[in-house]
Amino acid sequence: MHREREILQADTMPDDIWIKLRSTDLLSGELEHRLVSSHMLLLSRTGGGRLTIDVTEYTLRPDTAYFICPGQTIGVAVHDKDGPELFAFQYDVFRDGEADHAFPYAGEVPIYPEQQIGALCELVYGSSRHDNSLERFRGQSAFQELLYWIAKQTRRRTTDSRAAIDRTKAYIDSHYGESITIDQLARMAEISSKYYVDLFKRTYGLSAIDYLTEVRVTAAKRLMARSGALLRNIAQQVGYGDEFYFSRKFKQETGVSPTVYMKNRRRKIAVYSSPILGHLLALDIIPYAAPLHPKWTAHYYKLFKSDIPLHLSAYRYNMHWESNLAKLAAAAPDLILGCDTLTGGEKDQLETIAPVVYVPYKERGWREQLRITAEAVDATREAEMWMQRYESKVTAAKRRLERQLGGQRVVAMSLFQQTIRLSPTAGMRDVLYGDLALLPPAGIDPGRKGEAITLDGLAAYDADRIMLNICQEPESLAEWERLQQLPEWLGIKAVRSGAVTLIASDPWREYSASACERMVDDMVNKFG
To answer: Where is the HTH araC/xylS-type domain positioned along the sequence (predicted)?
Structure first.
């Protein structure tokens, strides 16, 4: 959700810091959510869309700079086929000779449009990528000049139409329980109703009425998660005087009636380990709590962030488990589902909160994991029906893929930092070589997990097609840029024939029923 922030005045920039430009890039179109390890500045070159920094969404605008801090994640969604082009400048901040994560700006910073800023972006981008060291030095100084101009051109939000429409969106967020009309919102923005309707749609990608409905339904879902909630009271609290009209709108938005949705939410189920979420959602059961983040659980965050009331940290390796336990203790769930890979101390504390069912993650395949999850939530029949549908989908997918990939030797692999690994995830192995029965290169055992391989070793396998996952973090992305220039990479058979297919971390690095189904769908979309 958009957040207003006060912008520092130009004369408050600390004079005891110095900055070194690390890299420049030009990002275009949709951007898979990735981790940022240094400071980053994003400036729009063309187009529009939505930028997500961690869990906060912003509308990409040409009159705004976006500052990202080390350890945050970013992703870009587009409204139309054109999408945005963004200058991306990564840099380090030093104070008294030591690296410093503090910086005067963070998030969205409005600026006055200046031709000088656009010209400086082009200069920094071109100079920093030049073969000549003197030109690269010029890029460093030009970046300092760019930051100076941004600091000089920062502005407090004024009464322009963009800022005004932001205020109406914030008004909807906090007053959705009241009667709201387009004329009322247009008057608040001090523009005509016709222009307001058009501007809201262009700014946020959906109409103001659709947004109001979305906010109201989301609020209703939160209320339905409470015990003893009455439908007529919920309808009134979210701005609908007519309970039956509310029911129709709710079903239009969610596909199920409010009574069915409430029935499914009566049992307060908490998912503690991310993979279990993919099993539970295959059973059409939405938990009360689950790990959610736009990078680490991208698909589920996008679809269910409004349906799941309690968001646990989804950061890799569960670094925030103590905070997650505190949230669960306060929520008092009826049942907790987790993987059996948790540490002993973590398990001991988890079991003091509610009954826990541990799903064997490494020793059992996803089908058995789904059955164990289904038994825990009394949905065994639903699990068997889901697997029947999955097998039918796989059968149809195999027929379609046979026409495109029949006889080809396919290798799946991932690039993480400087290491290439063959078939690093169980999902890749199960779906590609098991369910879809694709042929691995001669000499590769598809059942072996995560074997590291060199470029020479990869070339020796002589694969017809490479399915490549690149971890979305700085070192891996930089290594991918480097690999594409190497003669050893360019000489590999699949590279020469243009048969390298990039596959996203979501779903290919997850292992669950839902993820495997999405892998099959992805293969059909790419090759079917």
So the answer is: 166-264
